[in-house]
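Please predict the structure of the following assembly.
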Amino acid sequence: MVGTTTPNTLSELLAEVMKINEQTLDDNDNQKKQALSCHPMRQALFEVLVETKEKTALSIRSGVDETPDDPQLMRLDNMLVAEGVAGPDKGGSLGSEASGGDQADYRQKLHQIRVVYNEELRKYEDACSEFTQHVRSLLKDQSIVRPIQMKEIERMVYIIQKKFSGIQVQLKQSTCEAVMILRSRFLDARRKRRNFSKQATEVLNEYFYSHLSNPYPSEEAKEDLARQCNITVSQVSNWFGNKRIRYKKNIAKAQEEANMYAAKKAAHGALGGMSANPYGLLPGASASLLNPYPAMLPGQDLSHMAMPQFDLSAYNPQLMAQYQNSMENAEQKP
DNA sequence: AATCATGATTTGAA
DNA sequence: TTCAAATCATGATT
């Protein structure tokens, strides 16, 4: 306390500075600021602060800012885009088909997630830029009485944005989670298999058995069937794939079905104009006409017919024998 | 709960 | 890519 007037004034000045530091921008006592910047001791104080700052080595090491390029964040982003949450608005792109009728439900829920996600993302971005702006002007303001380099401001901004992006990661993470749950619940058709409607299988079987000699529907035919059955084209393809192989595996049993559908068709044809041939009802003839696999008849080699895959030449001789047998006995057991 | 039926997926060949 | 074949996983039946 020995006769120095300066400390007094200086401490007063410091107090003022501290006060400003504590205050936020929204006080508009520009007068005080003005007074501060004009204060005779300001320059001295400023220099002292600079010196102190240098001594404490608070200044930033420049350029060492590694950008980790967060692989996890990239993973999340990729997944969100792949799942149709983040990317361009999915219009008619049928994602993974092969699912029952609740596909629309899934899409609707996915879209809901999408909307919420984008909403939140925007919110975060807005908040981030607002806050950044705020800090920027605050620091700029304080640089009147405190040594603050541009670099430091930028660094501060960088830190803030980092923090905000952390929040974004969280958002993305929870969105991913939601999508995964939704997906496992709705889209994993394998886990939630639904049998086709009776009417749908009826249509498919009708086609199959009336094209037994070549049960490979063209793309157009598949589309048509899909429309009729209210299922996807892939499902039609699956169905025919399964049907062909399973028919082959148990011809004896399938024969009943074949006859049934043949009879049905014949009946239908009779109603329409009697032009359809009633071959399906004649036990003797049915072997050659109904049987899709001409090669199954003994002593015949149909390989020259170039009828692609659906030719049973080398398939399961026992079954063939059984089938032959069943033609005569009309009764056999696997 | 076994077992069968059936739609979907995987694998490998052409 | 499409297909056959094997396999998986769930629904329906018994």
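Chain A has three domains: 5-55, 71-187, 198-329. The first helix of chain A runs from residue 5 to 22.
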